[in-house]
């Protein structure tokens, strides 16, 4: 059954965040990931969303593939770049 990683971000330091983006470029695809949505929230219909929030939705063949991506050595190394920026808020969930 397909699984989706849904990530939301508020980027406060774009140049530093781009280091992370470059590091993960093409990585999701190696685990069977296909990005369906990538962009800013354009309209809030209900609830509250932080200003500038962006959403990324990536489909994987199954939850195991999504988790393999998230727990891969390559992703964990890239994640450190994002963490070192210290000013990026990220939430990431798997839905299957």
What CATH architecture would you give?
2-Layer Sandwich
Work out the radius of gyration.
13 Å
H/E element order? EHHEEHHE
**Which structural class matches the secondary elements?**
alpha+beta
Shape: globular
Report strand %.
Answer: 25-35%
What ranges have pLDDT less than 50 throughout 5 or more consecutive residues?
A: none
Provide the CATH topology. Answer: Alpha-Beta Plaits
Number of domains: 1
CATH class descriptor name: Alpha Beta
For the largest beta-sheet, the strand count, sense and barrel status come to: 4 strands, antiparallel
Number of strands: 4
Name the strands of the widest sheet in spatial order.
2-3-1-4
- The separation of the N and C termini measures 7 Å
Protein name: DUF1330 domain-containing protein
Pfam family, one: DUF1330
Domain DUF1330: 2-91
InterPro entries: Dimeric_a/b-barrel (IPR011008), DUF1330 (IPR010753)
């Amino acid at each position: 059954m397909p699984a989706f990683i849904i990530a939301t971000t508020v980027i406060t330091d774009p140049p530093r965040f781009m280091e992370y983006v470059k590091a993960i470029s093409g990585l999701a695809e190696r685990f069977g990931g296909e990005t369906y949505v990538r962009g800013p929230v354009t309209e809030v219909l209900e609830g509250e969303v932080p200003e500038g929030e962006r959403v990324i939705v990536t489909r994987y063949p199954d939850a195991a593939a999504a988790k393999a991506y998230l727990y891969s050595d390559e992703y964990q190394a890239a994640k450190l770049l994002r963490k070192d920026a210290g000013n990026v808020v990220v939430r990431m969930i798997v839905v299957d």
